């Protein structure tokens, strides 16, 4: 595989919504880039999320920093009520070390 193709694939992965760490929660589904369902149990989630207090801490998948304004966020999310409505299922964890992909 050529070096250019390899770099393009890596950049595509890191630009995807799943690797976005700065988020803003919108009030209406049509405003969102991603619909998220919060699972009651960790084993049901695709991604385990730990909420960080500084944007500089949000360096890897699962460490989310909630922005104050929508234009500061990489992705706008809407929390859905039912699992089948979601693009991504998450579970909030207690410790930063637990954050990351589950599936």
Shape: flat
Largest sheet: 6 strands, parallel, barrel
Order of adjacent strands in the largest pleated sheet: 1-4-3-6-2-5
Computed structural class: alpha/beta
Strand percent estimate: 25-35%
The radius of gyration over CA amounts to 14 Å
Calculate the mean pLDDT score and round it: 84
What is the distance, rounded to the nearest whole angstrom, between the alpha carbons of the first and last residues?
27 Å
Low-pLDDT windows of residues: 1-18
How many β strands by DSSP?
A: 7
Note the topology.
Layout lengths: L2 H13 L6 E4 L8 E5 L8 E6 L10 E4 L8 E5 L8 E5 L7 E2 L2
What does the model show?
The protein has 103 residues and is an alpha/beta fold. The chain has one domain (3-101). 13% of the residues lie in helices and 30% in strands. The protein has one helix at 3-15, and strands spanning 22-25, 34-38, 47-52, 63-66, 75-79, 88-92, 100-101. It has a 6-stranded parallel beta barrel with strand order 1-4-3-6-2-5.
What is the structure about, briefly put?
13% of the residues lie in helices and 30% in strands. The chain has 103 residues and is of the alpha/beta class. The protein has one domain.
Keywords:
103 residues, 30% strand, single chain, alpha/beta
């Amino acid at each position: 595989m050529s070096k250019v193709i390899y770099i393009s694939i890596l950049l595509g992965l890191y630009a995807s919504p799943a690797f976005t760490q700065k988020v803003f929660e919108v009030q209406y589904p049509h405003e969102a880039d991603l619909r998220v369902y919060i699972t009651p149990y960790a084993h049901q989630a695709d991604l385990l999320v730990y909420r960080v207090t500084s944007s500089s801490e949000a360096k890897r998948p699962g460490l989310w920093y909630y922005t104050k304004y929508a234009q500061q966020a990489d992705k706008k999310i809407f929390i859905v009520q039912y699992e089948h409505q979601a693009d991504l299922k998450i579970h909030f964890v207690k410790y930063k070390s637990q954050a990351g992909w589950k599936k």
